[in-house]
Structure formats: C-alpha cells, structure tokens
Write a structure and sequence with these properties.
With 202 residues, the chain is mainly β. It has a single domain, classed as Lipoprotein localisation LolA/LolB/LppX (outer membrane lipoprotein receptor (LolB), chain A), CATH 2.50.20. Helix content is 13%, strand content 47%. The chain is built from 2 helices and 12 strands; from the N terminus they run H-E-E-E-E-E-E-E-E-E-E-E-E-H. It has a 12-stranded mixed β-sheet with strand order 7-8-9-10-11-1-2-3-4-5-6-12.
Length: 202
C-alpha cells in the first residue's frame, strides 16, 4: 500500500506546479496565396505573403506601385515603386487589414447555409451580418474546415468579392517584409527632380 501512496503524493504535488506553467503561445498564422479581388465587376490579382502583424502584397497592375508592405507592428505601410527604386511611407490604417480570420469585424450574426469543396478544401458557407456604427453589411463567407481559413468572402449584393487561391500554410522569410536596401524615399526623388529656379526674365 505504501508503494501506491507515494506516487499519489508526488502526483498531488505536481498538479499545482503544472498549473503555474505559462501557457504556450498561439501558433502564428503564416501563409502565401493568390488573392483575387472583384469590385463592381472589375478583377484584380495579387500575391499575398502573410505573417500575423505584417504582410506583403505583390500587385499585378500597371500602376506605379507594384508592391505594398504593411507593417502593423510599426504602424506603417511602404509602397514600393520598383522601377524607380523608391518607396512612399504612409500611416497604417485598420481598414487595410486583410480578412484572414473566421470572424469578421463587427460581426453580429452568422448562419450556416451550405457546404462546398474549393480547391480540394472542404468549406462551410455562411451568411454573416456585420455592423459598423449605423452601417449594416451582409456577406457570404466560405471557411475551409481543414485550414480554419476563409477561402472566399463576398458581399451579398455581389458588389465586392475577395477570394484566396493556392493557399499554402508555410513560413515566410523576414526579407519579404523589409524595405530593399537600395530603395530611397520618394521625397528624395521629388527634390532631385525639381527644376532649378531661374532668375526673372531668363
């Protein structure tokens, strides 16, 4: 009997100690994907590299800005003009947050309305209602049950659709979220590009 009591005594001592151990941090969300956005029928494609409080978007557009690096931890967004090797820094705005969580900001209700397989991932289709102040919006959201990730989000009226394709949950290198060493602030370019003042009458 003594041989049984001793292990039990150790167990009662270990349980309180285990409760004092710090909780393991939640695993950071890291992934790469193609992002397809449709606004009023016009489609745009980009590549997304994401790690919790920072993400990079490589735009497939003809505009001067072809890369956006969002550093939520620094509260700044760097817009890269790769052809000119310059960048523009603007303040971070919460509206720039990517929709990569199962719960939507301001969500007030959620109803499951179906199931679907998207790119090999089983998804549940929800109708979600959000409220931001006086504004109420209704969305359709496809959540991959194996990834716990929203594969597609669309306004119910069809005016706005955002979809992730080729989603890969994997680590993303730090270098993608830093400014390239040979890039300079756009303000410096504006100074050097400004014409020299001329004397009156010349």
């Amino acid at each position: 009997m003594r041989g049984v009591v001793a292990p039990l005594r150790w167990l009662t001592l270990l349980i309180p100690c285990s409760l004092l151990l710090p909780a393991l941090p939640a695993k950071a969300l890291e992934f790469t994907a193609d992002q397809i956005t449709k606004i009023d029928g016009r489609s745009q494609k980009s590549n997304v590299y994401y790690r919790d409080n920072m993400w990079r978007i490589d735009h497939h557009t003809m505009g001067p800005v072809n890369v956006s690096i969002v550093r939520k931890d620094k509260q700044v967004v760097w817009l890269l003009l790769s052809r000119m090797k310059h960048f523009k820094a603007i303040p971070y705005n919460a509206e720039q947050e990517l929709r990569v969580t199962e719960t939507l900001p301001g969500e007030v209700s959620r109803e499951e309305i179906g199931q679907e397989v998207r790119e090999g991932h089983p998804t549940v289709l929800y109708e979600v209602t959000t409220r931001q102040g006086e504004q109420v919006d209704v969305y359709y959201q496809w959540v991959a049950t194996d990834l716990h990730f929203p594969m597609k989000l669309a306004k119910k009226d069809g005016s706005w659709i955002m979809e992730y394709q080729h989603v890969k949950m994997r680590s993303v290198p730090d270098s993608l979220f830093n400014l390239p060493l040979n890039f300079h602030p756009l303000e410096d370019f504006n100074k050097t590009a400004a014409p020299e003042p001329t004397a009156p009458g010349m």
